[in-house]
Amino acid sequence: MTFLSATLSRVKPSPTIAVTNKARELKEAGRDVIGLGAGEPDFDTPDNIKAAAIAAIQAGKTKYTAVDGIAELKQAICAKFLRDNSLSYTPDQVSVGTGGKQILYNALVATLNPGDEVVIPAPYWVSYPDMVLLAGGEPVIAETSLQTGFKLTADQLEAAITPKTKWFIFNSPSNPTGAGYSHDELKALTDVLIRHPHVWVMTDDMYEHLAYDDFRFCTPAQVEPALYERTLTCNGVSKAYAMTGWRIGYAAGPQPLIAAMRKIQSQSTSNPCSVSQWAAVEALNGPQDFLPTNNTVFQRRRDLVLSMLNDIDGVTCPTPEGAFYVYPSIAGLIGTTSPAGTVIADDETFATALLEETGVAVVFGAAFGLSPNFRISYATSDEALTEACRRIQTFCAALT
Asked: What's the whole-model pTM score?
């Protein structure tokens, strides 16, 4: 009899964290490493948000709070959903957790039974399938393609749904591709969901405010109000507000589901950090004028990376609508050999050879469920991106 739970055999550690840790180890060993693996803005948290946290500490707001969020933060979240998404929620329909990941996990644990299926478009954020497995469900992967801009079609969604389907997880703009669904593209998916009333929708809108060119963000319950009663709309302050380490995520949905999630949280972590909650109140209620400024920087970086990657023979990289990732295909490089003698059999061997031979850390596509690709996070300086892409160009040009 083994000591560890058999459930652990169903899941794997996060590949993005593994890449980040490997890059850190090489740096500490003296290697010149450029890490493009972490999905974390390099901007500092805005000063008004930091000031709100300091004021909360000085005011002694450092005690336990309500399990799933202070009233002031829930009210700010309700105001945000109404202001940005035309969605009306009350505080008892809101849950605040320790990051967006906890919100998603709580909902899955609260609802999944053995045999329940969850439809997940690929490429996907690495944690979706493993969270489903930890919660006892079965992930059903619906693969997109480069030809559709890594967006799921209505026919693909229809084909993936079975009588066992409980959730459809939807992420736009996407991690890892940056693909954003237009209103019409999303409406085609919600039309399918209307025909399957047993399927609930879990949206991950974490990159809502990171949108470029003429892309306009929309979320499922906004596009199709008839889905309101079976949609959990999830978001957080990590990406747009450069607050990854503050660990505040939130969601709004039907009150019975929120109550079930509260029960899970009450017996696991209890409340999120009190000081972080007060900072999040300021993030949502305070000035939003820095968002377009940051987006201008991100869009410039996106265009820089795209131009350099698409100059490489054998690499194809579509233009993402949002987030801060690109997801180039290396289909034209499979079967080649690196200068150090590594055969590029797949995207994992490509990423490993790239790191070992050039010091550029990226995440291989198989980690996101669709190959042969790799993900670059361009949430770092123009200088680092330029040098990293130059190294990638040199590495690819030397493949034989």
From this structure: 0.95
